[in-house]
């Protein structure tokens, strides 16, 4: 198992993540321009969505797939419930709701890193897991906001600005969700014929782009750690602990579901990674619009500076070992 | 040359659409918009690093010589500023008419 | 023929165009950063120019090629004439001149989409068609402006700001024209040896980049449709009709020339597509400087939101069917 | 600290070269230029989406304490603004000399 | 509405970190930062073309109603401006409080 | 030898450099967006660093390599000495120091162009030359500043703002140096296994990206030539002469060391190119912070508009001919 860890840690993408973090620690001015970072991320969503869609086209839906997708959505709605319940008397209630949504939702880059971990290890995984990821992005946002409205608004204020249509739009039509779902559907429509047209672009470049993207993630995650240090309040220790414990807890839940559904090795690992990961793009974007009362200084450093590195550095090989051991 | 008020508004990028709608509603004669900028205020630092969940700001500049429009703009902005943060500055300027 | 339509509509690039349009319709915030969009466009011009140049290097000029190039330029100068004559008493004269220039000139992305349509269908086409495209960009701009000056300036005003050198610079040295011509010449100089050095970059990635670029085009075209709705004047119905009729009319002219010159299937289709397409980069950029009186709100939505989708979605397979049927 | 005039000019990106030439010609002491921004005015919306044929705006800020220069700048700007649109605002400011 | 001073600072991009540190030190209530812009002054043209070794400028806007803070900001800026160039303009404005 | 020149001049990357310069001369508005240019440069540093690291992993350090690295560093510290001594009474002393640092340091793009020249010619070169390049970036910056402090500050002013830690950070942790060193180390850790994961991204695209990057370099270099013309002072003729003579002089020094160390053909050429090249990214960035008294209008046009084109157009084949003739 130590072996798996070390080989994970010495894969180029993860080493570039370290390099980015090191750049911040060493106060280098290394930086990926922001439009480029955005483009690399669009590329990854486009490629993984398309790949998943093509895979779905050749191995169509069966009961197990439908059950997996259903379980994924339930997972994404349940995680916020217990997260919120635990936090709501400990930190401001808007922050508790935003953190709940953050951990119920998923991180596409963590997922993508796990798929490339599987690809490099030669373990197969199903294209429907991309659909599972897409389905897990939104429910947590809605649950998080409903929890906030139920528990915070007994005094009735602020209610006028709420709009279901805005909530649903922010939850489901965020650019990154839209692109991954769209690419999935297009991949599914065009199938292997479509893939043959763009596979050099989508497959051959994938790991190289992932390296550059994780370099950027290393930079931004390390900056967030600095932010965390600046904040340094009492609540911070709760938040840090949660950011370390929640992914492991949620991974266990994912593992339970995976073994209940008797998933294959690859799909099981991906479901666990989805459960364990926390959002740092779609959820914050939605929260800023539908729950501006929540402080991004609490939920963002948790997901980006702690949970994200934890998952990609230690989590993926650890969850993999657990899958091997359990299934 | 004509006296006018120069209005400068900094808000989060994601509400820029709401500000534009407001400007249309109150009948502002035009605006200039600088997107994707940074800032720091009561609600923390906005580094404009969207992939890290960080938001950007944007800056509107509006030259306006009609006080009714200015008043309705101010009235429309207040709730927006108190909900999502930002600043609005007004000053006197001369407008070179072409 | 229905088959050709459907297979065209289900090619990945076109599906991504739809996805972009859908994003706007659904009010998603999906967006390609503007520097990235510019880069994707530079890449396409660079790649198609280089490819055309290399093709020219191996199959050098003959009489038919020279005739084709000449006919292309004439086409680009004639189309503005009848377009302007039809419009000049119906809409402001500056707008009529700008629209004339727009439809006389060409759209490189429509051309590129047609070449990839041919490549995927396994139909060959000649590198000199890239040269034809480059030659068709400028004449319409000059003709459009001369028409405006002849018919609008009887009262002599505004004349002082006119400068032939500025006009020629804007018409011929626009960045996109310059890049495609330059890449063509470089491809022609370096030939297959040069191609072997950069073919992975230029050929293998082409369709993938085209997908992302058409995603962006779908977004901007759909925004323009919204703009059109806002305008909603009487003149608008003329403009919309023109935007639907002109490409078909110009395509017929292109078809006539193609059969007169007895062009091959691929080259004939490309000439027709060039005739039918309308500019939305080079011409608007030139018009803003040499004819700022024209309202971009009239000529841009026509070419971008109506003629462009019409050509790539319906036009290409339709013109192809006509070519098959005629030649 | 020194009294000066703060001049702010918004024009279409494609004429920024002409404004820079003008600034050199009238002898402006310097300028700051914010390129590729957006705006809306009498000539429609400029979304800065060049690939859609849309143009961008740019914004010049000039601090100047010489009235002759300011006058020739204004004179030079007028035809440019009436041809291609835009706004020019002037206001009083204090300049922190280094 | 509240009277305040609008402070506008243009410096080279590479010293923006030093300005932010200064703003924190003097206790400025916030700032807005427009990064990567261009300009020309006594120290030549800054085209923002980093790969050509060219530097960019950046522009800070600070609304402040506390004179002590303004004075210490000015004092802190002077050496920075004389070392690396730039301009700082101050003017009066009204601040719309949310 | 004329042959080598011509075949160098007709390689796609160099032709795109000309095209960029021509765009400026013709007053075309062709432009690469600045974030894109930055990204292309990051890509080149990432790719060349990684490639060098992988090469090091398979052919580990020996005495000759250690000697080469040592000689490279010494070269980079010695060149500023005589450059400064020659200039210090002829132009402002801060400018002399900055020019000295500029010519002691290196240009990564010149190096990269030389490696692709070798690759295309089928001549092998050692991965440790990438390390040599990285080691040559910083010493010149430090030597340049020390020279300035020794000769300029007899009157003691300005001294308070000096900080060794800032100097070292600027000299050694500049983003581009950091990325190349980091990629080198990661390539060295992951070795051929890592390379196999990302080789399509790193190797296949390399020359295509280099074409687009040199297109941009052609544009910015030509703009600088215009700047030079504007300046037109007496000192300018000294600077132009230096910009032409220094690279040749430094190349001779490099050639001497290469033959003393008995380097292979490829490594010898790369060492000479490093000696002959001048920095236009790392050094100017550092100088602006540690020596703002120096006028970028003097050292930048020298390295960018004269020395850089001289090296890539004429220098590389010339140095190659010398290597062949000497070794
Ligand atoms: N005093 C200030 N001066 C200039 N800009 C400010 C100031 N305070 C806030 N801002 C801007 O407004 C944004 C939101 O402010 P806040 O709501 O206070 O977090 C910040 O990110 C800044 O860009
Ligand atoms: N009232 C205004 N306030 C601020 N900016 C304006 C105003 N009117 C026009 N502009 C700017 O100037 C540009 C050209 O204006 P126009 O010529 O009126 O279309 C617009 O795109 C805006 O950026
Ligand atoms: N008079 C001015 N008005 C506006 N901006 C200026 C002025 N002078 C200098 N600047 C800005 O400050 C930067 C540095 O100025 P300098 O130190 O004079 O070279 C320039 O690149 C401009 O962006
Ligand atoms: Na999760
Ligand atoms: Na046409
Ligand atoms: Na050197």
TrEMBL record, chains B, D, E:
InterPro entries: N-reg_PII (IPR002187), N-reg_PII-like_a/b (IPR011322), N-reg_PII/ATP_PRibTrfase_C (IPR015867). Gene3D superfamilies: 3.30.70.120. SUPFAM superfamilies: GlnB-like. This is Transcriptional regulator. It comes from Candidatus Litorirhabdus singularis.
């Amino acid at each position: 198992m130590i072996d798996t860890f070390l080989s994970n840690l010495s894969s180029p993408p993860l080493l570039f993540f370290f390099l980015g973090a090191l750049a911040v620690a060493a106060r280098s001015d290394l930086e990926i321009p922001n439009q480029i970072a955005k483009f690399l991320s669009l590329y990854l969503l486009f490629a993984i969505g398309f790949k998943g869609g093509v895979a779905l086209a050749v191995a169509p839906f069966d009961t197990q797939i439908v059950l997996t997708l259903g379980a994924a959505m339930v997972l994404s709605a349940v995680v916020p419930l217990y997260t919120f319940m635990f936090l709501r008397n400990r930190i401001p209630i808007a922050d508790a709701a935003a953190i709940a949504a953050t951990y119920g939702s998923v991180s596409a880059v963590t997922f993508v890193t796990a798929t490339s971990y599987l690809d490099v290890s030669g373990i197969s995984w199903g294209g429907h897991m991309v659909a599972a990821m897409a389905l897990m992005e939104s429910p947590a946002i809605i649950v998080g906001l409903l929890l906030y409205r139920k528990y915070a608004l007994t005094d009735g204020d602020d209610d006028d600005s709420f709009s279901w249509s805005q909530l649903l739009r922010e939850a489901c039509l965020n650019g990154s969700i839209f692109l991954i779902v769209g690419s999935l559907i297009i991949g599914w429509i065009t199938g292997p014929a479509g893939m043959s047209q763009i596979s050099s672009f989508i497959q051959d470049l994938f790991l190289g782009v992932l390296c550059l993207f994780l370099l950027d993630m290393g930079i931004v995650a390390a900056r967030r750690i600095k932010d965390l240090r600046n904040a340094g309040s009492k609540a911070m220790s709760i938040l840090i602990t949660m950011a370390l414990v929640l992914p492991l807890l949620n991974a266990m839940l994912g593992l339970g579901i995976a073994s209940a559904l008797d998933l294959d090795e690859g799909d099981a690992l991906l479901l666990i990674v989805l459960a364990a990961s926390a959002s740092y793009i779609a959820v914050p974007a939605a929260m800023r619009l539908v729950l501006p009362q929540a402080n991004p200084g609490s939920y963002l450093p948790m997901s980006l500076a702690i949970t994200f590195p934890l998952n990609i550095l230690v989590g993926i090989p650890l969850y993999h070992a657990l899958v091997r051991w359990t299934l | 040359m004509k006296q006018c008020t120069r209005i400068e508004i900094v808000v989060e990028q994601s509400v820029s659409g709401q500000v534009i709608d407001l400007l249309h509603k109150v009948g502002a004669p035009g605006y200039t918009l600088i997107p994707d900028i940074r800032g720091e205020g009561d609600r923390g630092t906005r580094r404009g690093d969207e992939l890290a969940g960080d938001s950007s700001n944007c800056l509107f500049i509006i030259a306006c010589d009609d006080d009714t429009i200015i008043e309705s703009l101010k009235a429309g902005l207040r709730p927006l500023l108190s909900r999502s943060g930002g600043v609005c500055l007004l000053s006197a300027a001369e407008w070179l008419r072409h």
